[in-house]
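Q: For a teaching session next week I want to show students how multiple molecules come together into a single three-dimensional assembly. I've collected the sequence lines for a complex. Could you give me the predicted structure tokens for the whole thing so I can convert them for display?
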Amino acid sequence: MTDETKKEEFWRWTEANWKNPDMKLEDLKIITAGIDVGSVSSQAVIVGDGQIFAYGNMRTGSDSPESARNALNYALKDTGLHEDRIDYCIGTGYGRVNVPMADRSITEIACHARGANFIYGPEVRTVLDVGGQDCKAIRCDGRGKVTNFLMNDKCAAGTGRGMEVFADLLSVPITEVGDRSFDIKEEPAPVSSTCVVYAKTEATGLLRSGWEVNEVLAAYCSAMAERIYSLIERIGVQEKFAITGGMAKNKGVINRLMKIMGLEAMKTQWDTQIAGAAGAALFAHTLVERGKGRK
Amino acid sequence: MKANYGYKDGSGDFFISIDTDKCTGCGLCVEACPNGVMTVGEDENDPFSEDEVASVDETERKKIKYTCAPCKGEGKTEPCIKACEPGAINHSW
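A: Of course. Below is the structure for the complete assembly, covering every listed component.
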């Protein structure tokens, strides 16, 4: 790939892996893994004795088993941990039935609630997950058990992939969308449709009629926020409110959403994209503890 | 748990909600539904529960607006709702 074509990839978000510097492999008794193969991104989280030991977060390819394998290898990289040492592995996400190394699969609804309970703390009661091509609103209790949920995966309006398409259309790197959408004189009216196809047409029209790129971004972010809110509204919001998934990193949408809701979202040091895989790995840990693991 | 199966698209909100705390897994809704929308099995969103509960069949979740249409109309109650003794099923539209 030449440098010139690389520059064209405005949708590209940062892939990352991490190893917990405070944990020593040799001290760990139970090691479990969770692999979340989503429509746009895949994550693997390694949990050692109930704490996150390492994770990897990367883009999903065209092949689910291979994406699961790549994410796991990325998480294991430089940790000294060999895959055979993993006591139990759970697959989750859109491609969960296609995770070859998984001993079992669990729905992303259950895993996101469990993961959010860990990465945001047990006070979290409402979890919003905006993924690549779906949106989930989940209410949960103090143990991360789902009490009410709703998922919209029929229509990708107001999801991560829509934002990627927009970043590309407007030639704005996706990581800058949030900041730039606030770099405007006046908040414009939201675009009338969040449907990726229609919104693209509408944005092209707005640009042609003289709108600035940042204004178009603001109008799209705000339409997405409204769309997401209409979904959360159905299950009812209870504080504290946490957001997982890639969209949690886009303040153009999130700050507007929180303004509509009149709330403040919880904050975390963790990568919000790993919630599903973390939940899966934590479920695996509980299963092993209960004697239901491999062996 | 209140499980909402269905979707929201440009034409509206279409969700069937099942209160799994009320649902006994008896399967009367499965028998009552003329179009195979309902099914009974393990609670896939509660991995540690061993109780069977009703849910909307995975193949139907993205088309219930159409599949459920024949059971809807003025003065009609959907057969799944009518059949459910504990009153665990609800339609959003």
